[in-house]
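Entry 14. Structure prediction run on the chain below.
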Amino acid sequence: MADDAPLWTWDALVAAAEGRAEGAPAGAITGFSIDTRSLAPGEVFVALTDQRDGHEFVGAAFERGAAAALVRTDFVAPAGVGMLIRVDDPLSALGRIAVAARARLRSQARVIAVTGSAGKTGTKEMLRACLATAGKVHAPEKSFNNHWGVPLTLARMPADVDFAVVEIGMNHAGEISPLTRMARPHIAVVTNVLPVHVGNFADGEAGVARAKAEIFEGLEPGGIAVLPRDSKHYALLSAAATARGARVVTFGTTTDAYAGAREIKLGDTGSEIIAEIGSDVVRYKLGTVGVHIAVNSLAVIATLDALHLPLDKATAPLAGITPPVGRGARTVLKAGDGAILLIDEGYNANPASMRAAIAVLGAVSRENYPRRVAVMGDMLELGEGAEAYHLGLADALAAAEVDAVFACGPNMRKLYEALPQKQRGACAPDSAALIEHVVGALQPGDVVMVKGSLGSRMAPIVAAIKARFGAG
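Output returned:
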């Protein structure tokens, strides 16, 4: 497919959606969108019924240049609106389009699916960059890993890609299974199994592990499972993969991992890794900091090796990947005659990722940033063990020698009250009430890390810090 070729022809799209066409677009179909705010001209607007009914925005979609709209059969179109594909249900139709997109890939193309309790998006981005050294890659721009994100990713996939990377997430059992069957990966990567959404499973982490193992249900014959050898759930994952006929490849820090870390050197802005891949040794750099990210990079190395790509060349882009907003992005801010280093981890949180973020905070040299500040919001969906998970962070804060803790939420309050008096900065019921405490306390020479679950709304704290202190 040439770069200027349409993503879909009208007839092929209507057939894939199993819909009824009204009219036809005047121009090429360039993509799909579920949000009129970000819709680009030439994209098909998919009127999903989620938090709001997307049919309310069909008119706005055409005003922004939509090529067509995927709507329910009974939708009453505004005057002058044409180019419709009428279907039983837009989400189901998007799924059918996704299946057709996967089916039209060339036989030599390879699909990699990534799941895990944490690190999915970062691992996806590492794979995207590394695979681009060997061919044309398709991967979602954001964390499109749910019931509409995966089909949207596949529907946007050109037919001539060499590699596709699909991110698959879940909150409950049974959610990954239909998505992996849609993606039909050749390689399935599980980054880790952690106490995330554990409150949704009666048997805790074991239930989470079984839900993650659903990813193997969609593996192509002769597929490969890339698994975390360090995980206490490795045996469960390995058995599930093997039962599906997969070849298991392991990664981690244990000596028997196929892609194992011989040495991880953490710096202020990056890391250096020496890894053993079978009997070979590979050295590479990461543009990010954190042992957890280094371990996820081993999953990437194992995947590249499974694809028989030259590792020296394929790993080179890892040095240029920096953390995205909300996932470790670093910003140097002006503060008087000095500077403040902001580490934005505000996108989401679970006990393991919170510990990892605290460790990253503790790894920042005191030479430039002598005071370490942690701003922490509640970790959600942890079930009956929530209080214990929060209280259990005290040792991580001590090990990282964090100087001041600012906390919000009922469970973080429990942790805050258990900390030594010298470590307590301030505590508030929610992030909005904590903002002034944090902004008012920051001073030149601070490194401040902000993290909490998405529902704890830590992003406004990050925004307030940036608004108060200009970029350096």
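The mean pLDDT is 94.
Filed with the rest of this week's runs.
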